[in-house]
Amino acid sequence: QSALTQPRSVSGSPGQSVTISCTGTSSDVGGYNYVSWYQQYPGKAPKVMIYDVNKRPSGVPDRFSGSKSGNTASLTISGLQAEDEADYYCCSYAGSYTYVFGTGTKVTVL
Amino acid sequence: EVQLVESGGGLVQPGGSLRLSCAASGFTFNTYWMHWVRQAPGKGLVWVSRLNGDGSSTSYADSVKGRFTISRDNAKNTLYLQMNSLRAEDTAVYYCARDTKYQPDYWGQGTLVTVSS
Prior knowledge:
The complex is a heterodimer of chains A (110) and B (117).
Chain A (H helix, E strand, L loop, with lengths): L8 E4 L5 E6 L11 E6 L6 E4 L13 E6 L2 E6 L8 E8 L5 E3 L3 E5 L1
Parallel strand pairs in A: 1-9
Antiparallel strand pairs in A: 2-6, 3-4, 3-7, 5-6, 7-8, 7-9
Chain B lengths: L2 E5 L2 E3 L5 E8 L8 E6 L5 E7 L6 E3 L7 E6 L4 E6 L8 E8 L4 E4 L3 E5 L2
Parallel strand pairs in B: 2-11
Antiparallel strand pairs in B: 1-3, 3-8, 4-5, 4-9, 5-6, 7-8, 9-10, 9-11
């Protein structure tokens, strides 16, 4: 049950794109298409932004997109906006009804 | 509207016990798996436990196995987490979250548990 590996921080200017990686193993990210991404503002609850690797819940801007290749999932934010500055976490099902979260990435809008 | 409201957090001494509750509304509670996820101050999210809809199947992170027990009362639309033998490293905000297809979707606002003498 080791945490998935994410970069500690990423940054970009308004309008640019940033990508956050989430690296696991064949027992979690690589083994299932149950990868989700969460946005969290300080002191607030997480909010789901992506589920099933690349699906967006209703109400989430299409600037947010997800993908997966092998044991690594990715979240891309296109057309970065000031309101996107937050912490982002990936999560994967890890089999036997267990789950694992990523280490978290702080997105800074320059 | 889906709502999850946690309660029961507070200050407890090492070795002590605490029971958290999560009141659910806005969806058919007994048809959804539920999770507890925690976040230590300034740290990341960590999955703690999962329970299926009728309460018959549980799973736990290794760090809490044997000390924490997840349960639910579907008549009261409430999820619980009984925490025993608490340690300083259990200090965290505890969130309950609904599960849809092996992924947490809706989250509560969290309740803070502080383990300290």
